[in-house]
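[Meeting: bench + compute handoff]

Bench side (C.D.) handed over the final construct sequence. Compute side (W.E.) agreed to return the predicted structure before the next meeting so the bench team could plan truncations. Sequence as handed over:
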Amino acid sequence: MVRYRLATGSRSHDRSPNFMISGIMTFGAARKRGGRAVSNAYRNWKRGGCALLRPYSLLATVFVTVAAGGSPATGQARDQNSGVVDVALAVPLSGPRQGFGHAVRARIELAAGEINARGGILGRPLRVEVNDDACNREGARNTAEAIIGNPAHPVVVIGHPCPGAAVEAASLYQQAGILFLAAGVRHPDLTLRRAGPLVFRAAGRDDRQGHDAGQRLRELAGPDGGTVIIHDRTTMSRGLAEAAKAAAKTDAAALSQTLTIVSSERDYGATVTAVAAMRPKAVLFVGFPAEAAIVIRQLRLAGITVPVLLNDAMANEEFVRHADGLLDDTVEVMMPVSISRDTIEDSETADALAASDAAAALMLWREAAIAVDSTDGERVAERLTASRAHLEEIGFTREGDADCASFAPFRRAGSVWRRVIAGTAGGRRGSNENPSRDASSLR
């Protein structure tokens, strides 16, 4: 029997073990993405810039309990606990985003089961304590206070996937000396306004799309190939284009040439003529689906077959309808990716993407704790930001961000988007896949 308690109330509920894995694949309005549960084995860094984690094959017993009361304990006191190792999971289990929380919870419990099946943490079993933060600031504060006061003394908090909730709770965990890995939080404010060195973002950042697109544009064009960036003059598009232009620059290549269009037009022949005169090796278009499809179609009709890279606004069925017949190996779309980077052919929702981030966070914390032979928050935090001994290891910057790409290129394969192997500029498709989701917004 599994017992848990909402952090915002006193009622407890008994559930069967089957309840632990409910909601693992919930489908809502978010755009579909691809992904799969994480594992503790890392793959080659060069296939995506972050650790790649394999699916789980084992499920062991996971103890789930939350209690209120008690007083905060220091990280060192938590480390001296000779019994189980308590990890707190904070997710929305009530309200409109509860499906989001159940997906994260299910994935974390699978990960914890795998860890326990392999001997736990430093010879001690892992116990996951599930808390409901309701995906809002008040719920997050109540949850954080309950976790801090929990006599079980959790050594790390993972979750708070809603950005506003994560920002609200972060300062409380920092003050209490509890390590916090905010899983699935892509809004930049978490680390731009970082509460302290115990707060980490176990996810990509939504404001990194321009940078990552620029790096991919340079890969497609080659080290010295010319590039053209087309955008629709909106504030969003202009910002992405400027960031991409800076990231695509190399000593061997000139700055990308920029062209602008006016949205809602039906003919961009003048723009295509300008592109032809510039003779680029690759083109980046930043805008919206209808205009993107028109530009690509007119480029192809003009005999311009260079790769075309697009921003994540194209990661939806609207663009697929507009660009029918054009989505071959020369067209790529930048999409958000999990730090786990483990992917499958069947797509997952935005909820499952955050769940992959959460499971990856747990595995990364485990590896760091084993490396320092301690669950003390400060020592584990130092390990997370330490220089990596091997390229396949994922690390974190001194600002608390995951040190890897936040977006990656995808190509259409049948009815799904398939991730392209990093470093591939030609027509070869990657074996990985992770269809897109909507960007996070600060609540």
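W.E. noted at the follow-up: The CA atoms of residues 84 and 125 lie 5 Å apart. C.D. will use this when planning the next construct.
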